[in-house]
Design goal:
Blueprint lengths: L1 E5 L2 E3 L5 E8 L6 E8 L6 E6 L6 E3 L7 E6 L4 E6 L8 E9 L6 H6 L5 E2 L3 E5 L2
Parallel strand pairs: 2-11
Antiparallel strand pairs: 1-3, 3-8, 4-5, 4-9, 5-6, 7-8, 9-10, 9-11
Length: 128
């Protein structure tokens, strides 16, 4: 059972990246997925979450309007599309999964829930 993030890298301010979170050893159909960011000198932040059904999403204020989360259960992958990137978006991005997250619980998923599985993270650096 494993979650693997990909798509990180170096990008200039204003640029875009798409991160992917792929599951192996299990299917994501019944799991809510969260994207978390650990930036230098800051606490881990839940930046975007999506419910098990994809019927509800959550974005932190720091990324709202710039990031979009989506899921493709057939591909066992969840994506985080990141646009208008800023230097303060620099950090290690982790995806995590928790079973049976309803549409009403995405805020809690990003802010209070303990997760069942974590990936190892992918580094995003926004710099000119």
């Amino acid at each position: 059972v494993q979650l693997v993030e990909s798509g990180g890298g170096l990008v200039q301010p204003g640029g875009s990246l798409r991160l992917a979170c792929t599951a192996s050893g299990f299917t994501l159909d019944y799991y809510g997925i969260g994207w978390f960011r650990l930036s230098p000198g800051k606490e881990r932040e839940g930046i975007s979450c999506i419910s098990s059904s994809a019927g509800s999403t959550y974005y932190s204020d720091s990324v709202k309007g710039r990031f979009t989360v989506s899921r493709d259960n057939a591909k066992t992958t969840v994506y985080l599309e990141m646009n208008s990137l800023k230097p303060e978006d620099t950090g290690v991005y982790y995806c995590a999964a928790k079973a049976h997250v309803s549409d009403y619980d995405v805020y809690e998923l990003c802010n209070n829930y303990s997760m069942d599985y974590w990936g190892k993270g992918t580094l995003v650096t926004v710099s000119s």
